[in-house]
Amino acid sequence: MSQNKLMTGILVGAAMGLIVSLFDRNTRNDVVRKSKKLGSNAQYYATNRRELQTLVQQQANKAQNLYNRISEDASYVGEKVNELKELTPQVRELALETKEAFVETKDAVIDSKNDVIAAVKEDNPSPSTTLTDGGSSSSSSNTGGSLSAPSSSGNNSGSSNSYNSGKKA
């Protein structure tokens, strides 16, 4: 019973809205014009049923083509999403490997820098000391984090002369 009251209320409300909207002359003229056009179209297609069937078939074909295109696009997007899901772990692994390589390179550069600083600070570097062995006593005492010229009581050219004085020509 409540459904009947609901439908009745909806229909009465729609009828009242229609009547109120028809008070406007432009709306009323537009409704009359469209109603006449609808009636003439219905009459035309009632006599030409084959044309109506053709139009309906064309619209159905358009709808089917649209559905097929959307379906193909959806499957294409689905395939690309699956490819991305498969590639994500590989890309992550590659990124981690690259990060590790950069960290190793950074550590090697820091070690080399410390070796160069230690070699520059030595008054008489021995020919057996290399930049990569890190085994000199002065390199173990150096814990500096930046590459700078060593401080000396004389001018800066003295430190490079003392490094070069260790070489024998």
Molecular structure report:
The protein is mainly alpha-helical and 169 residues long. The protein has a domain at 1-47. The chain is 77% helix and 0% strand. The chain is built from 5 helices and no strands. The protein has helices at 2-21, 25-47, 49-121, 137-141, 157-165. The protein starts with a helix and ends with a helix.
Descriptive tags:
169 residues; disordered C terminus; Gas vesicle protein
Poorly predicted ranges? 135-169
Whole-number mean pLDDT: 78
Residues in β-strands, percent: under 5%
How many helices does DSSP assign?
A: 5
Helical amount:
over 70%
The gyration radius over C-alpha positions equals 45 Å
What composes the largest sheet? none
Give the CA-based shape. elongated
Which helices and strands appear, and what pairs or packs with what?
Blueprint: H1 2-21, H2 25-47, H3 49-121, H4 137-141, H5 157-165
Organism: Planomicrobium soli
Transmembrane segments: 6-23
Biased composition (Low complexity): 126-169
